[in-house]
Amino acid sequence: MTGTGEPVRAWADRTSCVQGGTLSFATTGLGESAARVVVTDAVSGRTRLTARVSGPEWTLRVPEEWPSSLYSASFDVPGEDRPTTGEAEHEVWFVVRAARPGTGSRVLVSIPFSTWRAYTHAGQPYRGLYYSEQHDRAARVSFASPGGGPPPERWEEGLLRWLPQAGYDVDYCSGLDLHGGDELLSRYRLLVVNGHDEYWSMEMRDSVEAFARRGGNIAFFAANTAWWQMRLEDDGRTMVCHRDAVTDPMTATDPRRVTVEWSSSPVDRPENTMTGLSFRRGAGAWGEGMAVMVKDAYTARFSGHWVFAGTGLADGQEFARGALGYETDSCALEWTGDVPRATGTDGTPSSFVVLATADLRHWRDYGQGGAATMGVFRLGAGTVFNAGTINWGKVLAEDPVADRITRNVLDRLGGTDPGDGWEVAGAPDDVHALAVCEGTLFGADARGRLLCREPSGQNLPWRVIGTAPGVRALAAARESSGGLPLELYAATDDGRLLRRDPVPGPVAGPDEWVEVASVPEGTTGIALCDAGVFAVTPHDDTLHHLSALALSAPWRTVGDAGGAVTLATLNSRLWAVTADGRLRTRLPVGPDGPATPFTDGVAPGPVGCTGLAGRAGALYAATAEGPLLLCRRPALPAR
Predict the structure, then answer these.
(1) What are phi and psi of 379, to 5 degrees?
(2) Each residue of 382-420: pLDDT tens digit?
(3) Disulfide-capable partner of 513 in 398, 459, 498, 599 (CB 3.0 to 4.6 Å)?
(4) Contact 326, 153 (CB under 8 A)
(5) What DSSP state is assigned to residue 410?
C-alpha cells in the first residue's frame, strides 16, 4: 500500500437523472492514479456497478432496468490509503427517476438535496450556509461541488429502508425536481416528504401546493419543513440563501423571493399553510441534548381517526417513543379537556385535525422547548398528512403502531385503500339529528337534549345547551336565503314544526322552542332551501314542501323522496341519505317547478344515517349508536 495522498473528491452535474439517461461526474485529487467507482442502490444496499475511472471526468450511463431509487457513487484509489474528508467528499449521491413517471407507482418520494447541501461545510467561512449569525457564512453554494450527501444522522434512511421491506414500490425524485415540477407531480397520487426538508424554492412550493389543490395528496414524515426559502440559479446548479433580507438584493425587486424564513417579512407566507405545522411552535434538541429523543413519545388524541385504524390505540395512550426529534413541528392549539384543536392563528388551515401531541417544553434545556403535533387537513381537493417530526423513520422497524400509521397513510393517500369519502369527526354518541346555523353544529340526542359543537373534523365534545324534547330532525336556513332569518327548526315525533334562536346556549324567556306549524306524519328529515321547508316521509317515500314564508299554508307533495330517510341543504342543493346507505341530491325545486328527481352523489352515504347537515362544502352525518361522520367533498370522487 502506498503512502497517504490527497483526498479524492467528486461531484455530479445534477442531483437526478432518468432511467436510461446519463449523469456526468467530476473528480479531483487523482493525479496520475486510476480510481474505482462503486455505485450502490442506497435503499436496497445492492451494488449496481463497479467501474474504473481514469482522468478527472466520468459519465455514468444509467441502465434502463435500474429501479428508481436513491444511489451513491463512491470513488477511491485501490491500493492507496487516501484520507477521507469529514463531509465524505468522495461520495456522490443522486436519484434515478422513473422514465415513465407514475406508471409503476403512484407514490413519489422526494430526497431533500437542498437541505443536505445547506448543511455541507457548516461553519466553514464562505463555504457553508450555516451558521445564521456568522458574518462569513456563504450566501451561495453550488450543487456541482464535493459533498452534499446525507448528514451523519441520516434522518431519511429509516423510512427509505422500511418502504421496500413493507412491500411498497415507490418512485423517487430529487427535491430539486419539484422546482417547476407540475408535470412530474401530475403523474402521481401521493408525494412523500421525508426527514429534514428545510430549504424550498418558491417554484417548489408553488408546484407542490398546486398539486394538492388539484387533488394530489402529500405525506410529510418530516419536520422543520420549508423553514427557509432559497432560490436556484445557474440552471439549478446553485442554491442561494442569504438568510437575511438586508443583504438579499431581491428585497428591492421581488420581495416574494427573498431568502428568509417563509413566515418572515417580506415573504410573509407561513409554511404551515402548506404543511399544517411549523417549527415556530415545535421543539429542537441539539448537540449532546439529542439524546433526549429516545425518551419522549406521542400521545394519541383522536384514536378513532382512520390514521389510527388497526393500531388498537385509545385516546391518551402513548406511542412512537423515540420518533420525536431532533426537531419537531407543531401549531397553535387550544384545548377542550383532553381534546386539542388548531386555532389557525399562526397560518394552520382551519381544516387541520389534530391526531396526536407531545409536550416538549422541557426541551428548552437542550435547545428549543415547544411541542410536536401530528395531524391531517385538506388543501384544495387534496389531503395532507404531517407526522411532525424529523425522526419518524427511526422507529418504523420496531414500533408496530408507527408501522401501522405509516401504512394507513400510504394506503389511503396513495390510492390502494382510498376509503369511502367519510371520516370520523367525533366519538360515538346518541345524537340522531343535526343542523348547522350561524357557524355552529347543533344536535339533538335520544335523551331529549339540545347540544352544540364546532363543525369541524376534530373530535370535539358536544356541549349541552338546552332541551330538544321529542325532536326527530333539525334544519336551518342558509345565510341570505330568501330573506329568512337564521333560526333553528325542529321536527318532532308527534308532528310539530318548532323554531328556536340559533344561539349556542340557553334561550332567554319562558319558551325555548316556539311551535310554528305541523310536519307531515312520519317525517324523519327536514331541510330549508330557497325559502322552502322540505320534509321526507320514508313510509310512503314522499318529498313534501312548505313555503317558509307562509307556514300556515298546507304542505304540498313534490314527488318521491328517492328512498331518503334524512335531509340537508348544502351549496343550494338538497342532499339525502337513504336507508340502504346511498347519498343522493337534487335541486330545491318546489311543487310548481319541473319534475326534479333525486340522483346519486359520487360518494356513498353512511349506513344507519339518522341525521344530516351541510356546511362549507362538507356534509356531517349522525349514525345510530355510531360516531359523527364527515364527508368533505360529497360531489367529488375519493382519491
Answers:
(1) -125, 100
(2) 999 999 999 999 999 999 999 999 999 999 999 999 999
(3) 498
(4) yes
(5) H
Query: Which of 210-232 are b and which e, b meaning 16 or more Cβ less than 10 Å from the residue's Cβ?
Result: bbbeebbbbbbbbbbbbbbbbbb
CA separation for the pair 107, 219 (Å, rounded) = 10
Distance CA 315, CA 298 (A): 11
Q: What is the DSSP letter of 394?
A: G
Q: What is the DSSP code (8-state) at residue 249?
A: G
Cα–Cα distances in angstroms (integers) from residue 287 to residues 161, 206, 284, 366, in the given order = 26, 34, 10, 8
Cis, bond preceding 326 (omega within 30 deg of 0): yes
Instruction: Name the phi and psi angles at 176, rounded to 5.
Output: -70, -20
Burial of 398 (C-beta count, 10 Å sphere; 0-12/13-18/19+): exposed
**Dist. CA 556–CA 548, nearest whole Å:** 13
DSSP 328: B
Coil, helix or strand for 221?
A: strand
Closest by CA position to 329, among listed 252, 224, 418: 224
Q: Which amino acid is at 26?
A: A
String of b and e for 37-55 (b: at least 16 CB within 10 Å)? Answer: bebbbbbeeeebbeeebee
Q: How many CB atoms lie within 10 A of CB 126?
A: 12
Q: Amino acid identity, residue 13?
A: D
- 8 Å CB contact between 117 and 141: yes
- Residue entry with cell 339518522: 610
